[in-house]
Design brief:
The chain has three domains: about 5-125, Response regulator (Rossmann fold), CATH 3.40.50; about 140-305, Rossmann fold; about 310-485, Helicase, Ruva Protein, domain 3 (Orthogonal Bundle), CATH 1.10.8.60. Helix 14 (about 315-330) packs across helix 16. Helix 1 (about 10-25) links the parallel strand 1 and strand 2 (about 25-30). It has a five-stranded parallel β-sheet, sandwiched between helices. Strands 9-12-15-8-16 form a five-stranded parallel β-sheet. It has helices spanning about 10-25, 35-45, 65-70, 85-95, 105-130, 140-145, 150-155, 170-180, 200-205, 225, 245-255, 280-285, 290-300, 315-330, 340-345, 355-365, 380-400, 405-415, 420-430, 440-460, 465-470, 475-485; strands at about 5, 25-30, 50, 55, 60, 75-80, 100, 160-165, 190-195, 210, 220, 230-235, 255-260, 265-270, 270-275, 300-305, 335, 375. It contains 22 helices and 18 strands. The chain starts with a strand and ends in a 5-residue tail after the last helix.
Length: about 500
């Protein structure tokens, strides 16, 4: 029996689907606003959620990731009154199971519901049976956690895998993790740098050659495909392969056979293929730069790694992880990063992604010398200038996207809240004044601490809600708690 929640402002839709749920032997509940629906999601455990897009208090798609990350990690079926291509794309990208347009038939809703519940049950069973080793993959953000199920799926099969993502996102690390969690873990993990495969050496490199088969072939040579037998073959930067090399490799991939240069017979290699690239292969296919039949072959399972700027909540955890590794590597006492260091890291775009972050952290680690604390000042001047310019651009963009002036923004906010924010701040400030006025610095610190304590009290320590209300990043919030020694 599954537990199903309906979040829809249409009473008739709620009652109809709930009746279907009960007749199917499941347990159902519903809410007619996002706020009530989220209360139920965050206090209960559901296997499936039917989610409307247009609700009285918001857009359902904005809450899709929070629903999927709740304790039950439910599947989500989107309900909408209007068919919207962009909405469907956002929903599927966000992990929705299905996208239904009202009015959908009872048969269609029932079929989608039963399939989603079956998938959810299988996923839970798989999670219990497969204990993945993710020691080298760091991150708890929804963006990176969405890749973990695909890693489990890939690790449990021999299907071809395509890993795409910007430079520095960790494509080879994910390939290695899939290999280490697969039945092939005890065999070779062979990486081919496709960007370095030249036309005259590609066959020898991949397939090997016999002694005397060409000038300079002074001994038999085993190719990389032979070395990958019973193991994993990784085509790194597969988008850099020339069309002639793609043609040669396509046959090998189809038949799992190859012929070394100078050999008159073929050999078999039972390799598992993982391809990786930072290029858009579908766009390359459209331009005639990549073979469509090869793309179909290599992307049985497709893992898209998010850029670091989309998973900023992981920056602190990644930094702490790498600081521990550096301590071991350099054989020095532990070092900790100051909150100002994290503030700078959190507000940078990271065009080089995790690789760039690790390089920056190591530079600061070395620059801190014998000290046990790393500050923003330990970052290179060049990087701090880039970060400052990046922050200025973001600020200017934010201001230009809003009202014409800061005063106008403040006036609008005051109007929206009918003076409630001003009165709240005034009341809180009056509690902080003693018989003698403190310095401005002390007053700001007291006010900040009181604000944090009130956030924790009012929202019962629910971090996701606190971050939404305060506008703080996760790393900044934790840094402030540490600064004021606030426990929760």
């Amino acid at each position: 029996m599954g537990r199903i929640l309906i979040i829809d402002d249409d009473v008739q839709v709620c009652e109809t689907i709930q009746s279907l749920i009960v007749r199917s032997g499941h347990e159902g509940d519903y809410a007619q606003t996002l706020s009530r629906g989220m209360d139920k999601v965050e206090t209960g455990i559901f296997d499936l959620v039917f989610l409307d897009i247009s609700l009285p208090d918001g857009n359902g798609l904005d809450f899709l990731s929070r629903i999927k990350e709740s304790s039950g990690q439910p599947e989500v079926i989107i309900l909408t009154g209007k068919g919207d291509d962009d909405g469907a794309e956002l929903a599927i990208q966000g992990g929705a199971w299905d996208f239904l347009v009202k009015p959908s038939s009872i048969k269609q809703i029932s079929l989608s519901m039963s399939r989603a519940l079956a998938f959810h049950a299988e996923k839970k069973n798989r999670a219990q049976l497969v204990a993945l080793n993710l020691d080298d993959i760091v991150g708890k953000s929804p963006e990176i956690k969405s890749c973990y199920d695909l890693i489990a799926h890939a690790s449990g099969s021999d299907a071809n895998v395509l890993i795409t993502g910007e430079t520095g996102t960790g494509k080879e690390l994910f390939a290695r993790t899939i290999h280490d969690n697969s039945r092939r873990a005890k065999n070779n993990f062979v990486v081919v740098d496709c960007a370095s495969l030249t036309e005259n050496l590609v066959e020898s490199t991949l397939f090997g050659h016999k002694k005397g088969s060409f000038t300079g072939a002074q001994a038999d040579h085993k190719g990389l495909i032979h070395l990958a037998d019973k193991g994993t073959l990784v085509l790194d930067e597969v988008g850099e392969m020339s069309l002639s090399v793609q043609k040669s490799f396509l046959r090998v991939l189809q038949e799992r056979t190859y012929r070394p240069v100078g050999e008159n017979k073929e050999f078999k290699s039972d390799f598992r293929l993982i391809a990786a690239t930072n290029r858009d292969l579908e766009a390359m296919v459209a331009k005639g730069e990549f073979r469509q039949d090869l793309l179909y072959r290599i992307q049985t399972i497709h893992i898209i790694l998010p850029p670091l700027r989309s998973r900023s909540g992981d920056i602190r955890e990644l930094t702490d992880f790498y600081l521990r590794r550096l301590r071991t590597q350099y054989g020095v006492p532990p070092k900790v990063a100051n909150s100002d260091f994290y503030d700078v890291l959190d507000n940078y775009e990271w065009p080089g992604n995790v690789r760039q972050l690790f390089n920056v952290v190591e530079q600061a680690f070395v620059a801190s010398g014998s000290g046990n604390t790393i500050y923003a000042m330990h970052l290179s001047d060049n990087l701090r200038i880039k970060m400052a310019k990046s922050n200025l651009k973001k600020t200017e963009s934010s201001l230009s996207a809003g009202s014409d002036s800061l005063d106008e923004n403040l006036a609008q906010e005051a109007g929206k809240n009918d003076g409630s924010i001003e009165s709240t701040v005034s009341a809180a400030a009056s509690d902080l004044f003693s018989s003698e006025l403190p310095s401005l610095k002390i007053f700001k610190g007291l006010a900040e601490k009181k604000y944090l304590e009130e956030l924790l009290r009012r929202y019962h320590g629910e971090i996701s809600v606190i971050l939404d209300v305060s506008g703080l990043s996760r790393s900044h919030f934790y840094a402030l708690l540490k600064k004021y020694e606030i426990s929760y």
